[in-house]
Amino acid sequence: MAFEDRTLVCKDCGKDFIFTAGEQEFYAQKGFTNDPTRCKDDRAKSKQQKMERQTEITCKNCGKTDMVNFKPRNPEDILCNECFMKQRDTVHSAHRSTEPGTDTPETASSEKSDEADKSMEEEKPEATPDNE
Question: Is 27 domain-assigned?
Answer without folding.
Answer: yes
